[in-house]
Please model this.
Amino acid sequence: MIDQDAVSGEQLRDGLEPDVYPVHEGRWQRLKHTDAWRSMFRHPQLDTPRGRALQGFSNVFLHVYPVKVPRRVLRLRYSWRLGFIATVLFWILVVTGVYLMFFYTPSVTSAYGDMQQLRTGIGFGQLVRNVHRWSAHLMVLVVVLHLVRVFFAGAYKKPREFNWVVGIALLAITLGFSFTGYLLPWDQLSYWAVTVGTNLVSYVPVFGGVLTDLLIGGPQIGQSTLQRFYALHVAVLPLALALMLMVHIWRVRKDGFAVRRGSDTGTVGSFAEGATEFSVDGATTDGAIVGGVAADHLESAGEPVSVMPAATAMALAKGDRVRLLGVVDRESVTAEERQTDDTVFAWPHLITRHVVVALGTIATVLALGVAFAAPLRDIANPNLTPEPAKAPWYFVGLQELLSRFDPLIAGIFVPAGVLTVLALLPYFDKNPATESKYRKVAISIFATILLVAVVLTVIGALFRGPGWKFVPPWQHSYLEM
Ligand code: HEM
Model:
């Protein structure tokens, strides 16, 4: 470490690397003071708050993080790190996908052979394919769980409405990724899963035919479909996802972390990084203060001061007991503003946690890849329909719904309706509260839709056999991954 006494105030102000280093501190320190190193990393190496802040500002990777984050963000329960895990899975998919691209040609005559070759003739080919496949499945699951977490935390509310909408776009892109990738092995499983999936599109009123044609590029799935799915899978969707992810993470940074102030303060809601808390606490009646007071409200002099936090107001309206700290004359009230600095540096506190989660995610998909081989059935045969022909698991709930209702309703109106309502949710749901006890209606509707989707998916994936007949998994499993 550098002796700070030896650093001049001038150098600190400039944010330049001080031109001093203790000669006794070995090669690593010397390396950090070479011209080459300092041409890459210009910030001071000082282990001081200012040094760490400058590191954050001047490093493109660290710059993704705010310099300081609320301490609560460090807790696993804050987000279960699901958004971060989804990001890591995306990067694992990019790396493994590029390796697979070296050995794969999107042609109906060679695609299946390439997959066989990956199994036996290419170093780590099978493992990389397995990891790619399990990461893709896991990413769909993790993104859905992330959405559920964000919903229950109420983190989609002002000012994060738009980021929720971006999230919905990311979910759609993630599903598109998995679906287009499904066809590439060109075996019976992929061919028929994609046939079932693309059939859904044909039910779209008016444009069904055009859309199906655009997607599969002919009367049935063939070379043009494979080529289109490949282009979508390796170029269009990765670019779209990278772009939207950039916006998403940028917005997380700008909107501030949705950290609930929790029951310890008795308040409801969330605050962005750097928010201000006030030391007076309570609710008010005419001319008397009993509540958390916002300074700008107090400025409305001459009016009876009527300020109370949403939570207190709701609690009062429901007849709940609230903590009464005092009843005082309006004139005698002074709001003492207290900046809460319950924040910590992102580096090392948050970033080391992220490194551990990233390593854990990599270890998990590696373990899955070693333990379970990605399936490869017989080569695709348009004349031989397997029984049952199932859509990929994340669309099988829809297939189950289709087996029970009119295709137009089950295949189009229900999913389109759910997606639209979901996307516009933050604009319908104006209730500012984030705690579940104040959001009973929203939570009940969301939980019902979620439950129905999960039940349909489980039935479709595990309990359906030939002829879409009911077959319990303990008799025979027709689960396809
Ligand atoms: C490819 C898919 C996605 C990735 C990689 C991703 C990534 C992330 C990351 C890294 C964060 C910050 C930390 C965290 O909350 O875990 C985040 C937050 C957030 N995400 Fe996502 N996300 C994705 C999809 C979604 C979806 C489907 C939604 C909801 C429709 C969503 C809505 C949000 C919101 C509102 C926040 C801010 C929450 C807060 O501040 O607590 N995201 N996302």
Q: What stands out?
A: The chain has three domains: 4-59, 72-261+346-383, 276-339. The two ends are 53 Å apart (CA to CA).
